[in-house]
Amino acid sequence: MADYIGVFLLRFFCCIVATQLFYYLFFFLRLAFYKEKTTTETQEYPVSVVICARDEAGKLVHSLPGVLVQQYRTTHEVVLVNDNSIDDTKYLLEEFQRSFKQLRVLALTQEGKLIPGKKFPLSMGIKSARYDILLLTDADCTPASEFWIQKMQDGYRKGIDIVLGYGAYRKKKGWLNKLIRFETFHTALQYLSYALAGMPYMGVGRNLSYKRNIFLNSKGFASINHIPGGDDDLFINKIATKSNTAIVIDKDAHTISEPKTTWAEWRKQKDRHYTTAKYYKPKFKILLGLYSAGCFLVYPLAILTMFFYGWKVVLALLLIRLLVLALVWNKAMDKLDEKDLWPYFFLFDLWNCLYYLLFLPSVFKKPAKRWK
Predict the structure, then answer these.
(1) Among residues 286, 275, 300, 283, which one has the least CA distance to residue 352?
(2) Is residue 8 part of a domain?
(3) Apex 176 CA angle, 170 and 181, nearest 5
(4) Residue 5: what pLDDT?
(5) Number of domains in the chain
(6) Does a structural domain hold residue 345?
(7) Residue 298 resides in a domain
(8) Cα separation, 120 vs 97, whole angstroms
(9) What is the C-alpha separation between 32 and 72, in angstroms, rounded?
(10) Is 343 a member of any domain?
C-alpha cells in the first residue's frame, strides 16, 4: 500500500513541478529577458495625469511635487480630484496651484450614489481630463524620476491603448518591508509577463496609463460600479487585449509608494486587493489558480513524497525548479530594481507556500465599500 501511495505522490509531485516550470519558462522568462524596443523616432503626446485624494494632505505634501516637476516639454496637466476631504488638502492644493499652473483641482463635495470605492472620483477626473493619454497614480506615490511621464508615454505606438507600469514600494529596513516588496514584485512578475505573452489581465493604479477614448467607449466602470475595488485590475481585465497593451519597466518610469509599517495594515490592504480576483475572466482565474496552487503545494508535497517514495528523485526535481526560479527572479528583479531581494530567494519561495494559505480567505471576503 505504501508503494502505491509513494508512486501516486511522485507522479503528483512531478505534475506540480512540471506545471511550475511551464509558468517560469513560458510566462516569466519573457519579463526576465525583456528588452525595451528602441525606436529611431519618438512622439510626445499631450498627457493628463489623474490622481484621486481623500484626506491625503500629509502624503500629498511629499508626493505631489515629484509629479509637478516632471521634465516633459509637451503639453500636460495634473488633475487632482479632491474627493470630499475634510483635512487640509484644499489649502495645500491652493498653495501648489500658485507655483504650478499645470495643476488643476477638481473638488467633489458629494459621494457617488450606489458607486462604492474609488471609481466615482476617478471617473470624474478622467471625464474632466483634457487629453486622450491618461496617466494614473495614487496620492501617496512619487515618480522614481523626473522622466516618469516621458517614459510611460513612450509605450504608446500604433494600436496601443494601454500601458502597464510598475509601482514599487520604498526600500526600508526590516522583514515586513522585504515581504511587501517581494509580494509586489511577484505580482508584477505575473501581470507583466502575461501581458508580454499576449494575455494581459490587470494593472496597478499606482502606475497605469490608458487612453481616455477607450475608457469612454467601454462605458468606463459601469459594468463594475457595484464592486468597491477593481478600478485598476478589473477594468484592465475587461478592456485589455493581445494587441492593445504594452508594458514599460524602465526604472525611470517606476513610481514609489510608502509601504505599510505593521502586519495588520498590510493584511488589511491585501484583503482589499484580493476581493476582486473572483471577478476576473475564467481563463485568468484558472491560470492564476493553478500557479498559486503549485506554489502552495510544492514543498508540502515534496516532504510527503520523500517520506513515502525516497528523497533522491524529489530533491533532483526541487533543485531543477529552484535553479530555474533563481535565474528568472534574478533577471526580473534586476529589471524592476528589486535586486537586493534576490539573496533571499529561497526564503521567499518558502514564504509563498505560507502566503497563499494565509490570504486565500481574502478572495471570499466581502470588500469594504469605502476606498479611504
Answers:
(1) 300
(2) yes
(3) 45
(4) 83
(5) 1
(6) yes
(7) yes
(8) 24
(9) 29
(10) yes
